[in-house]
Amino acid sequence: MSVSSSPAALPSRRLAIAPMLDWTDRFYRYFARQITRRTWLYTEMVTTGALIHGRDAGRFLRFDDCEHPLALQLGGSDPADLARCARLATEWGYDEINLNVGCPSERVQSGAFGACLMADPDLVADCLKAMQDVTDRAVTVKHRIGIDSVEDYSYLRDFVGQVHAASGCTVFIVHARNAILKGLSPKENRDIPPLRYHYVHRLKRDFPALEILINGGFTDWDAIAAQWPAVDGVMVGREAYHNPWLLAEADARGWGDTEAMPTRLAVVDAMVSFMAAQIAEGVPLKTMTRHVLGLYHGMPGARQWRRMLSDPNRLRANDPRLLIDAANAVEQRRAA
């Protein structure tokens, strides 16, 4: 287990990487932390059932100390179960515990949590309050602007107002799209419902004392920076995964931290050492290399980098020095 730094020592949530199922596991988060020191990292959603009834809660909760500031995102709707998981998160040293009220998956809905909870703000408040009662860490909520055909701004305003009044929660992370609970896949729910950034901006104006983060569709620094005057922070999703070097500017742009960041080759060296330690514990190399395929995104040699790190024959050797070979091949091509 790890022990978190004190909440007072944590940076603001100017920029965060969204929780993404199957993507933001501890291997990706370690990689992202080699590129940015201050950006908040969020785990992929972990259900309360996996932690309470699973045989190995540590598989979901384990992280490296370098990952701070770090939030655990929980999926669930039973206040007692969420409280039990919040205790675990505190013991393990997470800096924040986030409740998922945004996932539109029908599988999640069958467990009565995710975006469908927006229809029951009293239950959401009960869940948050139960977690707050057992932890000294920040308890936050991530949600949509509405569900199904309910598109009035008043729905979002009333949801946030009721949840805040009943629970005291002060941090709301808002995916600026509706969640369509029937008829659209989770992927389609990330693209088809229109983005309404102005709803989230208005929410911040209506609740100036609350910390409001905006999420949805951000792919470059112009778009991210344009949000900061209107909200407290921006959460970036898939762009941070597919194009991780975007994060190289995060510390300077978000917090004025101009300390030089490592080069791509330095990141590779750090990942080789990390992967070697994980392989010694029985983690296959291919489980980790999939998370670093975007390191050279958009650059000459990017295809070669991805091809070498995806080659089954090379991966079979389980030797992390494959990253060094691939990086050298790319750098030689760039220098030619």
Automatic annotation (TrEMBL):
Record-given protein name: tRNA-dihydrouridine(20/20a) synthase
UniProt keyword annotation of Nucleotide-binding present: yes
Signal peptide extent: none
NCBIfam families on file: PRK11815.1 (NF008774), yjbN (TIGR00742)
InterPro entries, sorted: Aldolase_TIM, DUS-like_FMN-bd, DUS_fam, DusA, tRNA_hU_synthase_CS
A single GO molecular function term of this UniProt record: FMN binding
Cofactor: FMN
Residue ranges of every copy of the DUS-like FMN-binding domain listed in the record: 17-327
Enzyme's top EC category: oxidoreductase
EC number in record: 1.3.1.91
Keyword DNA damage: no
UniProt source species: Denitromonas halophila
GN (gene name): dusA
Family in the record: Belongs to the Dus family. DusA subfamily. Belongs to the dus family.
Protein residues bound to FMN: 19-21, 73, 142, 175, 215-217, 237-238
CDD domains with a match to the protein in the record: DUS_like_FMN (cd02801)
Pfam families for the chain: Dus (PF01207)
Active site: 103
Keyword terms, alphabetized: Flavoprotein, FMN, NADP, Nucleotide-binding, Oxidoreductase, RNA-binding, tRNA processing, tRNA-binding
Function noted in UniProt: Catalyzes the synthesis of 5,6-dihydrouridine (D), a modified base found in the D-loop of most tRNAs, via the reduction of the C5-C6 double bond in target uridines. Specifically modifies U20 and U20a in tRNAs.
Site label Interacts with tRNA, positions: 100, 187, 190, 303, 306
Catalytic activity: 5,6-dihydrouridine(20) in tRNA + NAD(+) = uridine(20) in tRNA + NADH + H(+); 5,6-dihydrouridine(20a) in tRNA + NAD(+) = uridine(20a) in tRNA + NADH + H(+); 5,6-dihydrouridine(20a) in tRNA + NADP(+) = uridine(20a) in tRNA + NADPH + H(+); 5,6-dihydrouridine(20) in tRNA + NADP(+) = uridine(20) in tRNA + NADPH + H(+)
